[in-house]
User: Fold this.
Amino acid sequence: MKMVILAALALTPLVAMDKQSAKRLNESAAVFSEVMTTPDKGIPKELLENAHCIVIVPGLKTAAFVLGGKYGKGYLSCRNKNGVGWSAPGTVRVEGGSFGFQIGGSETDVIMLVMNARGAEKLLSSKFTLGAEGSVAAGPIGRTVAAQTDAQMHAEILSWSRSQGLFAGVALEGATLRQDLNDNATLYGKKLENREIVTSGRHAPKAAARLLSMLNKYSARHGNTASNLDR
Assistant:
């Protein structure tokens, strides 16, 4: 009986972490769905169709213990090698940086699109810093990208944030993205690197079904139908 109780106590934190990951995946799916259902004020579809990878961080928080910093967890997914569908998600932590568009809110939803193979390579490293190691620009909003600036046209990463329901493009300069091996272990049962998850064709966990369904609903096929890592 004592052994059963000890085993149950040992499993309790793991169950809690699993539920937290499932909740965050659902929140990521909800953020993306809500943004894409307002096309006049959301991410232009043609940008999404040509994106190599996407990063979604729901509820990025101001971190009082980090000077001028932010902290949040989210997920990345990249195109499958044949350009159709999206990979199983890997987990990321976002730390530091200037996020501008806060509207006085304590939490901000962040979406980033990685627009070329160089950006995808950097995204799948253990960590990289936006602006320093990868060019980033505020993403345009609306049905088309006709109003893109030169910076937007050549940026490796386009980024947006939403605070208190208001959605705008912001350049997330100085923010660091790190893979989270512990959270990946919660999802996949072992500490996998994001590159391995994305490029191996690994099956996504059940908790990611809604997020992948939303990504496929709005952009199932890459605009150039080519692998995000082969170009």
Notes: The chain has seven helices and nine strands. Residues 13-219 form one domain. Residues 61 and 127 are 19 Å apart (CA to CA). The beta strands are 53-63, 69-78, 90-95, 107-114, 127-129, 136-138, 157-163, 166-169, 176-179.
